[in-house]
Specification:
The protein is mainly alpha-helical. The chain has helices at about 1-25, 30-40, 45-55, 75-85, 90-105, 115-120, 125-135, 140-150. Helix content is about 65%, strand content about 0%.
Amino acid sequence: MKRSLRSILFIGALAMGANSLLIAQTTNPWFEGWYRAKFGRPSPTEQARIDAAKATEPANAVQTDAKPGMTPAPVNTWFEQWYRDKYGRPSPTEEARIEAQRASVAPRAEVPAKSAKAAAPANTWFENWYRDKYGRPSPQEEARLKAQSR
């Protein structure tokens, strides 16, 4: 009896020690991803790490790898390809990156307000819905653009 009780206690202590090693990890990427997805912000421990890193970073540090006017390429190309296949257009983040790149390369000429207002379609909701669903302008919009270019 004493022998089995000792072995049970020993095995229990060993199991608790092994579990405490798993719990005491400094980072857990799965938990961080879950917390960020659920709450939209980093967990308190991750936020403390970020704040500590910002505090130790020199105030006059300059990023040498970032060039002015250049936006980084997307890291998750699988998601971009999937989004383009499903919706027929780039994802919102990719659209923003492309637009920022276009704006930095060649600034657009300003269009007078009267011609921009006259060229705008009457039903923007339908145009936006059609473009989001099919990835191209609606037939009415194409006809309007064709007539405008003549």
